[in-house]
Specification:
- There is one protein chain.
- The chain is α+β, with helices and mostly antiparallel strands.
- 21% of the residues lie in helices and 31% in strands.
- The chain is built from 11 helices and 28 strands.
- The strands form 6 sheets. A 7-stranded mixed beta sheet has the order 6-7-5-8-9-11-10, with helices on both faces. Strands 12-13-19-16-15-20 form a 6-stranded antiparallel barrel.
- α9 packs parallel to α10.
- The longest helix is centred in the N-terminal third of the chain and has 17 residues.
Length: 597
């Protein structure tokens, strides 16, 4: 019988061409069910060939458990077993019988079996298949992919080709369908975070169908799809780096797709974006574009440089060029180990290798599943005012389950307080829904809340969490780059999830100053507002090209000075500044008023 894998597991070591490790191991189905297998059915390689009714019932329950654990899909190796006394492989006839049995079981579960490839083993063939079921009702699997790369790498053009199923004309025709602002259409450069979706059915087919006006109906796509990929199109120009960092942290993507122009190579912000993705522990896939207009020697030079960067001690990736269907399947099953980095070479004009990229995107799986029974928490990244509806906020549900009518705490405001509000309605990708679970992005209509009361970085949390805002926090950081040294009172922009605010270093433990490559525990203090923080969250600390990354270790709620509404005055000193005071006065204020003990 075949071996059924979790959607989060990696392939067996003898199938992994990358040598990736740390991505999980194959799991014996028998360990995940209370059913007593008949004649050890779960370990035999021929368990799907001609099972008895009792054995078929056991296999059905095993498949149900794997689909539930794998978020509505799971991999399956037909002809591979766990019995060490027998080698893998079946005759072609037995493999076909096994697939027929698996399809009959899947049909009862309203699932589809997608054959990915067949490989030769010691005793015959082994078929690798994907079993996917359509979620009930209006639910679908939501996976977010951040698209980054240097300016003019072809990010928006590639997304236009993928989502609208129409090749580019070589002059940016496809990207015009995605731009949000007039100046973006004129310059051809993205300046804001833009979202685009690509839906896949349970059979693995793309369900995006543009209308007569060339626009996509998101509601129809989400209702027809079993899996929806949300592409977070980020800016490539250096002056929009703040927006790009917020897209990587605030929108919480599961994967990062780095685009590199074949004719330009790895230049400009491409290295910056790759470093940010690695600092946030996101799996990275690389797409080399414009291969139709690039001379072979330049393309070879670009790929050589890309391999050298990915193999460097700072990245520690295993690059793998995807040229065939077999390469694509092997890479997709090893991708979540975060060690493997697949590289696709595509052309948006001729369509070369776009089919392999689409199939790879179809096989992407969530890195981890949130606990739906935990207290609800949502990180807010956008606010809207909708006529007839009122205030609407959008964000990502980090944990728990939120339903229409639930009461949640909204905050923190400028004073660190939280207010109770009700959820009037929920939309997922512009489609109304009754609930949203951890790991899903959605928009929420709030009751009796003004838009002016909301800012990016606020959260919606369950009252049982007793949320508190923090002015200060301790974090362990690593300085990736700084031209000189960093000492106390140094200020830079801190990104923690959807939080984006300037913070100053109050104390450096064990060191007087920090240089490039140093690692230390520091205490930070926010400049304008207290924020809601969680221990273990990733930090991106930057100012221009100065960058540091780290993890929050502890959050403080220290003694606060008394401030009036328009100005902030310290009772212990004579330092006074306006709400938007200059840097020098701000540093004096922090030096006088902060108490570390």
């Amino acid at each position: 019988m075949d071996k059924i894998h979790s959607s989060q597991s990696a392939p067996r070591s003898d199938q992994n061409p990358s040598g990736a490790d740390g991505g999980g191991t194959d799991v014996d189905c028998k360990e995940h069910t209370d059913v007593n297998p008949v004649s050890d059915i779960s370990r035999r390689k021929d368990r799907f060939v001609a099972p008895t009714p009792e054995e078929k019932a056991i296999l059905t329950e095993l498949l149900v458990a794997r689909l539930k654990e794998g978020n509505f899909e799971t991999f399956c190796d037909v002809g591979a077993g766990d019995d060490e006394s027998e080698s893998n492989g079946l005759s072609p006839a037995d493999v076909n019988k096994s697939l027929d049995t698996l399809r009959s079981i899947a049909e009862k579960l309203d699932a589809k079996v997608i054959e990915l490839k067949r490989r030769q083993d010691k005793d015959g063939e082994v078929a690798e298949v994907l079993v996917r079921t359509t979620p009930a009702g209006d639910d679908f699997v939501d996976i977010r992919v951040a698209v980054v790369g240097n300016v003019d790498a072809g990010k928006s053009t590639l997304l236009g080709v993928l989502t609208h199923d129409e090749l580019d004309n070589g002059r940016g025709k496809s990207r015009q369908k995605l731009f949000k602002h007039a100046h973006e259409a004129e310059s051809g450069r993205t300046s804001a975070v833009s979202l685009d979706i690509l839906g896949f059915s349970s059979e693995g087919k793309i369900v995006n169908k543009p209308g007569h006006d060339g626009k996509l109906d998101w509601t129809q796509i989400c209702s027809d799809a079993a899996k929806v990929l949300t592409f977070i199109d980020l800016a490539g120009h250096e002056k929009y780096l703040k927006t790009t960092v917020f897209g990587l942290t605030g929108h919480m993507p599961s994967f990062v797709m780095l685009l590199v122009g074949a004719n330009a190579g790895v230049i400009g912000m491409a290295k910056e974006h790759l470093g940010l993705a690695l600092a946030l522990n996101k799996p990275v896939l690389v797409v080399v574009t414009k291969i139709d207009m690039c001379p072979p020697n330049v393309l070879a030079s670009t790929l050589k440089l890309l391999h050298r960067i990915l193999k460097s001690p700072g990245c520690k990736k295993m690059p793998m060029l995807i040229k065939t269907q077999e390469d694509m399947v092997d890479a997709s099953r090893s991708f979540q180990s975060q060690r493997l980095c697949p590289i696709f070479q595509v052309s948006n004009v001729t369509g070369e290798n776009l089919g392999l990229l689409k199939q790879f995107l179809n096989l992407l799986r969530p890195s981890k599943l949130a606990d739906p029974g935990a207290p609800a928490e949502v990180q807010l990244d956008e606010t809207f005012s909708v006529p007839g509806t009122g205030t609407v906020v959008s964000g990502t549900c980090v944990s728990g389950t939120i339903r229409t009518g639930d009461s949640l705490m909204l905050g923190p405001d400028s004073t660190g307080g939280f207010t109770l509000t009700n959820i009037r309605g929920i939309h997922r990708r512009r489609m109304p829904t009754g609930e949203v679970r951890g790991g899903q992005a959605a928009s929420f209509s709030l009751k009796k809340v003004k838009r002016s009361q909301i800012r990016k970085g606020m959260v919606l949390v369950h009252p049982s969490l007793n949320p508190k805002a923090h002015w200060e926090f301790d974090g362990e950081i690593v300085i990736l780059h700084h031209p000189t040294t960093i000492t106390t009172k140094y200020q830079a922009m801190v990104h923690v999830g959807s939080v984006r605010q300037s913070a100053a270093i109050l104390h450096i433990e064990g060191l007087e100053r920090l240089r490039t490559g140093d690692k230390a525990r520091c205490r930070f203090r926010f400049v304008r507002f207290p924020e809601y923080l969680t221990t273990g969250a990733r930090i991106v600390f930057r100012e221009g090209r100065t960058k540091a990354v780290g993890t929050i270790l502890y959050s403080h709620h220290p003694h606060l000075c008394t401030h009036s509404a328009s100005t902030r005055t310290c009772k212990r000193g004579k330092h006074r500044r306006t709400r938007f005071g200059n840097t020098r006065l701000l540093r004096t204020h922090i030096h006088t008023c902060t108490h570390l003990g």
